[in-house]
Amino acid sequence: MTDNRQLAAIALVALVVGSTVGFAFAGGFDSPVAADDPESTTAFDDPTIDRFDSREQFAAYLRDSRSSGGMATFQTPDVAIETDDAAVEEEMAEGDRATTTADGDAAASSSGGGADRYAETNVQEAALDEPDVLKTDGETIYYADRRHRRTLGSTAVVDASEPANPSVIGEINTGGELLLADDTLVVFKRSAIYGYDVTDRSDPERTWTTAIDGHVEAARLYDGDVYLVVADRVSPDDPCPIEPAGDDGPEVACTDVHYPTEQNDANTVYTTMRVDPESGEVEDAVSFLGSSRTTATYVSENAVYLTYADAPSRADLRLEFLLSDGRAHLDDEAIDRLEQLRSYDLSEAATRAEIRAVLDDWRAGLERSERRTAERDLEEAWESYATENLRQFSRTGVVEVGIDGDLAVDAAGSVPGTPLNQWSMDEHDGHLRIATTVRAPGVDAENDLYVLDDDLETVGSVTGMGVDERIYSVRYEGETAYVVTFRQIDPFHVIDVSDPENPQLEGELKLPGFSTYMHPLGDDRVLGIGEEDGQVKAVTFDVADPENPVVEDDLVLDDRWSAIRESHNAFLIDERHGVFFLPGSEGGHVVAYEDGLERVTTVETNGPAMRATYLDDYLYVFGEDELVVVDETTWEEETYLEL
Question: Are 605 and 126 in contact (CB under 8 A)?
């Protein structure tokens, strides 16, 4: 079975994680950044990166881009950016309205209380918060309504100063993904971002609104600042200026856009911005030109790593094959025409058309009785060539934007294959690790892991894992990487990355189903969350012997859906009580993990459970429009609230 057919056959959706904020935007920040000044971005010495000299050079680069590029296949779908401007305009017209419930005393009582311990959002990097529908400071909880994704939605404000007896004290007329920065709640909603002053929890006040052009690829809260990556599609007819923060924000001039000096499939400008959450002001920005396809974004405490498709020319790959491994199967006339074609400087589309014409004429010159055999021989030669040159067919460009000090494009590089999501990448001791799936048409896929230095040059790799499979999840834990690949079974790979120049595949384990999220449990144990035969599954791996990982225990739940499939932010672990929480389709499952896996209880909700948190010894389970509070010492329901 070819890899393309394999992917069609397993149309199960892998975990969609928060390297991207899952909605589109359009509009503007107030900012003093002078983006029209070519000197406003930091200089660099990387020969693989440059800045455009003029609008004309920018437009010419876009025209030369292989807009239909990608792997050497005949069909590459376009990626459209969706916005919902009508909803944004309606929401902006609502102004600063926030509602207060009748229980006005709750806000006052919350000022002196709060939990001694509470859960924060499950994120990739501990110091970097990620947007999610649930946020708390241990005293107040903000929960955004997820029922109406195409409408405005709302955010409930819950006083949790008495953890056993919470109460709804307010409502914000905007829903979406949330970040909480001290007394400012930042709400990401489709084509806009909103800032709310929540000093008075019972009466939040909208203090700023920003409409974003393009869409937000990633957002993080780090050290008091919000970091945004905004993607804007660009056209050679009108490439710049670019307004990632709308009409009222800074303009990015053509001469401020960085680009890879080696021509690639470019159609999108990625602008990384540092934003003051209290005022909404853009404090710094830097832009890079890449492709809209196969984008994943990883953010560390030092840098934002953007990835984009950096595919070679499909036409060049075909031509190279026909004049090498395919030469023996063609006649002299076809070879002469292809040799002449190689000397021309033609566009991608024109080269493909010429190759097609040569092959059509070659087929027409064959006797009918020999045509099928000749075509089959050429196809087999292609499969052999593609297998031997697998890593030439798809590549991913990687751009490092430093965030320590002024934002700056520090380095650029590329690796074979395509990363799954943000979890495919990890920064450790000055190196970037990135796991990818490598594909070519008509041959089996493989999976690799590359280690890049601070110049984003590859210094080590492990290649060829999970043949005829693709990556479903990745987790890095210090000097070890765990990779799950899948087609019909779930191979779990353990990789030693302690030596960046010589990473080693230490062991692997095959088991039914697949894991889309992995979470280290300590004591040489790793938890996997995923599916088996369409049902939610949890599995614990014992990795004490990396060369011989084993399944310690597994648990298949009577549930066919979990919010963890959509976002890793939905996962909750409570180490004090030795349990983790899995939101399900009709409630949430509490599972003990210290001595095997055992379902402790299911917290029932009216519809799917979406999120959970804990405050002291109380588990808060959120449905679509309800809150169930459970005492973790007895696992009995304590309180029920409609939101």
Answer: no
Measured between alpha carbons, how far is 32 from 483 in angstroms, rounded to an integer?
44
Contact 386, 393 (CB under 8 A): yes
Q: Integer distance in angstroms from the first to the last C-alpha of the chain? A: 50
The amino acid at 471: I
Residue 65 pLDDT: 79
For the question of whether the overall pTM of this predicted structure is more than 0.90, the answer is no
What's the pLDDT tens digit per position in 443-484?
999 999 999 999 999 999 999 999 999 999 999 999 999 999
Torsion angles phi and psi, residue 364, rounded to 5: -65, -25
CA 407 to chain centre: 21
User: What separation in angstroms does the CA of 626 have from each of 143, 146, 349, 370, 500?
Assistant: 10, 11, 55, 70, 48
- Residue 627 CA from chain centroid, whole number: 29
Per-residue buried b or exposed e for 533-562, using 16+ beta carbons within 10 Å of the residue's own CB:
eeebbbbbbbbeebeebeebebbbbebebb
Angle at which helices 332-342 and 314-322 cross, to 10°? 140
Neighbouring residues of 175: CB distance < 8 A, sequence distance ≥ 6:
133, 144, 145, 146, 148, 152, 153, 154, 155, 187, 189
To 5 degrees, how large is the angle CA 587–CA 626–CA 200?
140
Is the sign of the CA dihedral 462, 474, 12, 528 positive or negative? Answer: positive
Provide the residue ranges of all domains of the chain, joining segments of one domain with +.
1-17+431-570, 19-83+225-236+251-309+395-420, 85-211, 314-391
8 Å CB contact between 48 and 412: yes
Cis peptide before 500 (omega within 30 of 0): no
User: Which residues, listed in sequence order, are joined to residue 520 by a DSSP beta bridge?
Assistant: 526
Number of other CB atoms surrounding residue 458 within 10 Å:
17
Q: Which residues pair with 529 in a beta bridge?
A: 517, 538
Residue 252 in contact with residue 78, Cβ under 8 Å?
Answer: no
DSSP line for 288-315: EEE-STT--EEE-SSEEEEEEE-PPPHH
pLDDT digits (tens, 9 = 90+) for 143-196: 997 655 555 689 999 999 999 999 999 999 999 999 999 999 999 987 899 999
Query: Alpha-carbon distance 185 to 177, whole Å?
Result: 10
Helices then strands, counting H and E runs in the chain, come out as: 8, 39
d(CA 491, CA 132): 30
Tell me the DSSP string of 106-169: HHHHHTT---SSBPPP--SSTTSB--BSEEE-SSEEEEE--S-TTS---EEEEE-SSTTS-EEE
* Matching residue, tokens 């000097």: 479
> H or E stretch including 412?
strand 408-416
Residue 590 near residue 634 (C-beta atoms within 8 A)? no
**Residue 108 phi, psi dihedral angles, 5° rounding:** -65, -40
pLDDT tens-digit series, residues 253-289:
999 999 988 877 789 999 999 999 999 999 999 999 9
SS3 (DSSP) at 539: strand
Sheet holding 98-100, edge to edge: 98-100, 167-172, 155-159, 140-144, 134-136
Cα–Cα dist 566/505, whole Å: 29
